[in-house]
Design goal:
Elements (H helix, E strand, L loop, with lengths): L2 E6 L3 H11 L3 E9 L2 E7 L5 E7 L13 E4 L4 H13 L10 H5 L1 E5 L5 E5 L5
Length: 125
């Protein structure tokens, strides 16, 4: 099975920069003006999942709460440290998780659309 997580955004460039420059994902593909939608596919090559972000004339209308999170598990401590350093270098502040488990086992940040992302240090030991 393959997985695509798709989300609409009002600022495709900010999302692209955040997920590629800060989190280290790659642009896997893109499309322009497909029924008035523009989009990018972001992930890592040769994996069975990726993110799709789209933009159109319709404004994004996001709803999430403090427990809706995307959790990333770096494979090594050096990868974990690199991601944390990228957030610091890009002036992205960590935020406190409502679930204390994540404050003990990683760092939480918001992407440009306000969605919470946790960079976990569990696998990076």
């Amino acid at each position: 099975m393959k997985l695509r997580v798709a989300r609409h955004t009002d600022d495709l460039e900010k999302i692209k920069t955040f997920y590629t420059d800060v989190l280290g994902f790659e642009i896997l593909g893109s499309f322009e003006n497909h029924d008035n939608y523009h989009g990018i596919f972001i992930g890592k090559p040769n994996l069975n999942w990726h993110f799709e972000f789209t933009k159109s004339d319709k404004k994004a209308n996001h709803f999430s709460d403090e427990d809706d999170v995307l959790v990333l598990y770096p494979e090594t401590i050096s990868e974990y440290k690199k991601l944390i350093n990228n957030t610091i270098k890009n002036n992205i502040s960590s935020i406190t998780s409502i679930n204390p488990y994540w404050d003990t086992n990683g760092k939480m940040f918001c992407d440009p659309d306000g969605f919470r992302i946790i960079i976990s240090d569990l696998k990076a030991t």
